[in-house]
Amino acid sequence: MTDRPMTMKRLPAANRRPLLWGLLLSSFSTLLACASASASVARPTPGLASGDTANGADNFYTSDKVTVQKVVFKNQYKMNVVGNLFAPKDLNRGARIPAIVVGHPMGAVKEQSANLYATKLAEQGFVTISLDLSFWGESDGQPRNVVAPDIYAEDFSAAVDFLRTQPFVDRERIGAIGICGSGSFVISAAKIDPRMKAIATVSMYDMGAANRNGLRHSVTLGQRKKFLEEAALQRDVEFVGGETRYTSGTPEELTDTSTAMDREFYDFYRTARGHRPNTTTHPTLSSNTRFMNFYPFTDIETIAPRPMLFIAGENAHSREFSDEAYRLAGEPKELVIVPGAGHVDLYDRVNLIPFDKLTTFFRSNL
Q: Which pairing describes strands 169-179 and 196-202: parallel, antiparallel, or unpaired?
């Protein structure tokens, strides 16, 4: 990491929203009881290589200042979405405080990165919820690992539905964070859900552009058409009961020809640093083509005047997506570039992740 200060553009504070009464649908004590048996408070998987734990890598961080409770709620497709609800232990039972929804990287689960962000922000006084997107982790959806960007975006709105019913949440002060692919899903959600009052993305991937064009527009039209044909033929196989095929995601093992990007993801997902037994990161081949029709940055300017914060690593292979979103977004907006950081670094390296900046952003705008 260099010794240069973090690059920031100043963001004017938004007006505070009026306090409204929430709906008393469930008891405070039940929802905020520390329930380690039911909540997905994960631990590193034993027997794996440790991975690179430099710069405070701490994906499985827990805090004695925070309570955590597993929660289940339905999206508008009547699918169960499973999340972990975090709150400060010293939460004033008579108060209504701001809340934040946190979405995990594409192909991951809430125990990978999202729980860490939710815990750290709960320490700062927010109610937070990390969620498993549909078809991943503990949430509903068959077959598993299906690509469904519309439903992913709906899951963010469903989490807002849930938070707005909680008696200790100020229903008019709810924000959202999307990490990696969830950065594009939360933008897609926020464009049509004005109840999300402040939106942040970290190491964002535009999953549509990444699949259509590749990084730095490295995929040709011919390559795209070949992939579409392969995926379409795989639908024929699966329709008659053939075996499901998977694509992309993190390699299961490294070889002499593995790329730097392969190694970066492998060091998180395939080592004790971030591994979870219940995910492969590989989406189904036949459904992955849906990302070709996913354009989250179209009309991103309509989110304004709700504020947006884009955080990316200086050396991240995905930085182009945060740069482009910032260019297209309306005011107020802010771009934060973390010196010396790569893409996956901002999943769990607490010495690099600008939690202070996230805290300031949400305190100012919720």
A: parallel
How far is the CA of 87 from the CAs of 22, 168, 250, in angstroms?
16, 10, 32
Q: What are phi and psi of 284, to 5 degrees?
A: -70, 140
143 upstream amide cis, omega within 30 of 0: yes
For 44, residues 6+ apart whose C-beta sits below 8 A from its C-beta are 60, 272, 273, 275
In this structure, which amino acid lies at residue 340? G
Is 272 in contact with 48 (CB distance < 8 Å)? yes
Q: End-to-end CA distance of the chain: give it in Å, rounded.
A: 31
358: its two tokens: 């996230």
Contact assessment for residue 105 and residue 115, using Cβ atoms and an 8 Å cutoff: no
* β partners of residue 349: 57
**Integer Cα distance of 84 and 42 in angstroms:** 11
* 315: helix, strand or coil: coil
Report the C-alpha gap between 133 and 106 in whole angstroms: 9
133-186 residue pLDDT tens: 999 999 999 999 999 999 999 999 999 999 999 999 999 999 999 999 999 999
